[in-house]
Amino acid sequence: MEKQIYLQERQWQKRKDEFFANQKSQNNSIVTLKNQYQSGDYMAINKVCEMILKDSPYPLSFEKEIITEYNPDNRLLIVEYRLPSPDDIPTLKEVKYIATNIEIREAHISEIQLRKLYDDTIYKITLRSIHEMFAADAINVIEAISFNGWVRAINKATGNEEVTCIVSIQIKKEDFEKINLTNVDPKACFKSFKGVGSSDLSGLSSIQPILQTQKKDKRFVDSHSVEFDDSTNLAAMAWEDFEHLIRELFEKEFSSNGGEVKVTQASRDGGVDAIAFDPDPIRGGKIVIQAKRYTNTVGVSAVRDLFGTVMNEGANKGILVTTSDYGSDSYAFAKGKPITLLNGANLLYLLEKHGTRAKIDIKEARRLMNEDNK
User: Fold this and answer.
1) How many CB atoms are located within 10 Å of the residue 254 CB?
2) Considering the domain 220-373 in this protein, what is its CATH number?
């Protein structure tokens, strides 16, 4: 009995330590993000804006997917926002119990009412989102906002799922602050700012966005191909070559989707090694990739650092790739977070998937490193 209690206490203590370690890591990330935002860091501004929009509550339940891009040169914030589709709008008007027939009868709004309600909802979300961005601009760095509203829905004519931009608007802060949102008609207000959208938004007619996000980062460097064959030991490869190999690999992985992968300046500091861009305006976005050419197990601290980097970069996801493996604490920390951990076996599988082979020999790599250090 005492042994059982002892084991339960140890398990409880372990869960407690993991909880506080995760809490500390997330708190530190938030403090770092706050400091970076207040210093005017454009990536932090992106992340804060995305967090504000994603946390904005709505009585309507719909999946929010948001990408932002802040340009410090012209102080313009571009927002790509996934809007609800017509199918997300509730149509139930009333429910009646018919005692004579012992049945429950539902009444729904008409198709005309649904179209009007949908249009009104889209214009309100658009204006409210712009308002939230300007109102939250505590350091006064956003001079204008370009907002693109995208919808993912089934095309009734083809039966295929499509992603279309249905509204686009660009507004200066000084002009937007002159209006009183409480009293405006949403559609009239949108049109007064030269917003672009069809007369019937529920028809999901595609329009050309006024301005879209770009993929620019001063840290990007020219990439180069890495030559290797099935006798190449990835665990003993030069770390810069390993980073470029990872870039090549993920470029092949994302290319079928029209994706793009960029390598950042080499630093060996555990920062960002590569950044992938998935062009899908809704599902895709920015993906941070870190490459760890390790001969030892990757500690949980590296996974925590990746999570912090994902937050600070305003990325949608983080991928950590290593020639070795991860401990159970690393997998536990990554669970439920936008993080993917790929070990040596996963790496070899991906290489083979794209028509190339190599090997990972940890013992040989350790021996070669020891020889180099003599």
Assistant:
1) 18
2) 3.40.1350.10
Annotated domain spans of the chain: 39-203, 220-373
With residue 98 as reference, give the H or E element that holds it. strand 92-98
Going by C-beta distance under 8 Å and a sequence separation of 6 or more, which residues neighbour residue 55?
none
**pLDDT tens digits along 303-346:** 998 888 887 777 788 899 999 999 889 998 988 888 999 999 99
For the record, the structure tokens of 121 come out as: 């909802």
What are the tens digits of pLDDT across the range 198-234?
A: 778 988 888 888 887 755 554 444 555 667 777 888 8
- The reported pTM is 0.59
DSSP 168-219: EEEEEHHHHTTS-TTTS-HHHHHHHTT-EE-S-GGG------SS------TT
Q: Within 10 Å of residue 59's Cβ, how many Cβ atoms? A: 5
The total number of residues written for the chain in this structure: 374
Contact 348, 360 (CB under 8 A): yes
State how far the Cα of 282 lies from the Cα of 66, in Å rounded to an integer.
7
C-alpha 339/C-alpha 225 separation (Å) is 27
Count the Cβ atoms, other than its own, within 10 Å of residue 41.
17
Render 12-35 in DSSP notation, one character per residue.
HHHHHHHHHHHHHHHHHHHHHHHH
